[in-house]
């Protein structure tokens, strides 16, 4: 790891005890635009923190498959990466267990860097002139060949460029992270070895081992801005993007860290000598959230306060460190070292455990407990920058109050262990959202209120209104996307009569076309007769059973369907959110017998006639047989979304279908009526529909609301189905996946602290980390 680490950390919700929940370990690449929503690539607030004299804690020692030549970390997922000849081993930070190996055939002493914002780890096999992109989603490696005398690699997560030094060739070669296109080499001159990136300034620091200088390169221009002379061959490097400085070490410089100011193009040094310890500085890394450079010389691990330039002894484990890079998880504040054939991890003396970011309902009481760790002692929290939402305040370790004004509020939280001078700062955002409710006196009236919200004016002459049985779910499920396609609402009716509220709404809408979904046994002729008094064109669409009706509805509403959503017709939960997602993408929702082992003839004929090439199948093996899912591949590309429960499936559906929405809909997932009408509303307005419990909202749904950038949350249904706790967006519990803003992207003032301390080892709590953004990290 050359210059930085990006991370996410779990947040235990403050409301209720978490139910058992799947911890999502799989990843996906994330576009910069999507990550900007989370703040990962935004400049954000400047961090202000500093190292003191607190103790250290050994987190874990993980054995890997050979001598470790470099380490990197993706703290979004709490995964460490250990390079060795022949491959890269992956270590779970939470358990210290080696979980996987990515083979790099023939690689000798590879070196690493990581871009956690895109879920990529980069491994340079200099001996074979190969740069590998390791995709964390699949743990697969893709090589790209680069000519020259390759030496080192560094990645700029802001620009999506990887840079490789070419030794005696004298150039820096850029590579595009996504396309793997090799760019025009940047001429620097000299024998170029180590490299670091200041991602905030767009600056490269390149070591010339022969000329004994460090060149400062403007990344965008591809030109050398200047160079600073050094007195030895620098073999260790890390970059402080907050203050635009590079820290460098050499085995030939006893007790000295060289510092290059990339803005002023000047050099200085830090004395890291400690009585009883001596030697050259051969390993370096940085934690920007504590504004700490961590390094090794001889038997000591030292820490440098980047705001003051002062150095302190930290612990006596330096002799264990065997490679030049120290990787740092910037949210759990864990330093990771290569130590022979192991990865050694140590917790720093202070950490804020978890994210405070999330959604806050305007006008409702809110409370968030801050969790932290200090060694020794307890952290004291303060708001050190920005502002909390109006109406909220920090008292002790709790942010509480009633937020009054919708909007996004970004602020710094600093945790300080004042007796020992240690502090850490993270930047968070709270989205204060408006919460409203759309509901009627019963299920039929609620569908009317949804219709009014969706279509405040009369329908156009070409629009089609859909009517479905509101007492039984099957026929109405496919009706939602069909109604969206027809530019009209889906209204629910009693099977034997047309409720007055529904009749009045149809009079208001003045539809020229009405489709009744279901046969006479489902929606009686009396209902059809009543409808014919309200519209000149009333058609009944149905099949021999629920599956046949679904097919008939699709054939009536769609002339073609390149994309089709598929759910089981034997139950309703998976279909509720799917209807909205399908409608928003102008796709139908097809019901099938999830217990079948293959695609039946009628379904096959429908997919062929619709020219379907993409199929999203929803539901786990309990509701959708694996052989049936596999058989759908005959008709195109299959995406299979299978949650551990109905709520997890709902979240996966939304995460794969929506990128941004100002409104989010919530409906009770334990019953179907309210969500049926809401599915058409969801589709017509591209507003994600989540199903939820009646008394709380799943934590991952709250995270998704944050990531979607929603400003309004609408509950569909009355207080008997979604109570006041649900309206207050009370979490059902679990771990949030929202990461704080990447720390220290702008200079910050130093803070003072005490100097007394101890080297005692204390227990340090740690919990599972999850991907930062489930919409993009599947």
TrEMBL record:
UniProt-listed PANTHER family: GERMINATION-SPECIFIC N-ACETYLMURAMOYL-L-ALANINE AMIDASE, N-ACETYLMURAMOYL-L-ALANINE AMIDASE-RELATED
Pfam families: CW_binding_2 (PF04122)
Superkingdom field: Bacteria
GO MF annotations in UniProt: calcium ion binding
GO cellular component: membrane
Matches recorded under SUPFAM superfamilies: Cadherin-like (SSF49313), NHL repeat (SSF101898)
Name by which UniProt lists this protein: Putative cell wall-binding protein
Any one biological process term the GO annotation gives: carbohydrate metabolic process
InterPro entries linked to this entry: Bact_Sporulation_Assoc, Cadherin-like_sf, Cell_wall-bd_2, Ig-like_fold, WD40/YVTN_repeat-like_dom_sf
Organism: Leifsonia shinshuensis
